[in-house]
Each structure stands twice: as structure tokens, then as C-alpha cells.
Amino acid sequence: MDYLCLSALVGVLVTSVVISYDIACQWFTNFWHRVEAESTPPLLKPRPSLQIRALVPKFHLESHNPKCHAAFSFNYDPDVARTDGEGVERNWSVMNGIASAVSMMGAGGRWDTIDDFCNFTNYRKVVGTGRSVI
Length: 134
Prior knowledge:
- With about 130 residues, this protein is mainly alpha-helical.
- The protein has two domains: about 1-90, no CATH class; about 90-125, no CATH class.
- Helix content is about 40%, strand content about 5%.
- The chain has helices at about 1-10, 25, 30-35, 60, 65-70, 90-95, 100, 105-125, and strands at about 15-20, 50-55.
- Strands 1-2 form a two-stranded parallel ribbon.
- It is globular and about 40 Å long.
- The two termini are about 30 Å apart.
- About 10% of the residues are buried.
């Protein structure tokens, strides 16, 4: 997860990033220690001015330990308080419809098809035509 996150942040020009992750309270706790470790490639280390915060999506937070609630809640973050953090989960309802088809495909075809469906869902959000139905 560290490699994936840091790779996505290479070259990012924003000053602040909020990560919505179901188990942010476990993953992010020692994140900066792992980033500063010698094993982290220098090109992946974020610039010092980049603020990175990780929060648990609102729907998932209730099942976490109560000591996580305040520290990792979208409700208490001043920049995202009305965000629920569940946007990344919403594609699953659409993606479940193609599961039987992609399960029979080879790896390349499967990933291309999944990319196509995710891109179509994002396109529908951008043009404002509502949620896509498969």
C-alpha cells in the first residue's frame, strides 16, 4: 500500500492530500516512519511541503475501535467534513454486473474491461448524466 500511495503522489503539485482508506487507522499510524526508512526509494519520498492525511470513510468508521473515531473521522477534518469518503466504494455496484464476464477473461482483457467500465462511470459523473446502469 505504501508503494502504491507514494507512486500516485510522485509529481503531484497540490499542497494537501486526503486519503480515504477503510483501514487508514492501522496503515497510516507508522506511515511516516516507513517513508523515512532507507528501503523507500528516494524518488518516491514526498516533498516535505506536501501534507498527507488518511481518514476512514464514514460508513466504515463505526465498526472500528472507538479510539480511532476522532483521529480518523471525516467529520472532524476541517477540509473535508461534509465528505463521506465512500466515493471509491460506489463503483462496486456497477462492477458487480460484469463479474461473471470478466472472470472468464485473460488478465489483459479483464483489466482492459474493468478500466473501460470505470472510465465510463467517471465519464457519466463528469457529464452529469447520473449513475450508469449495466
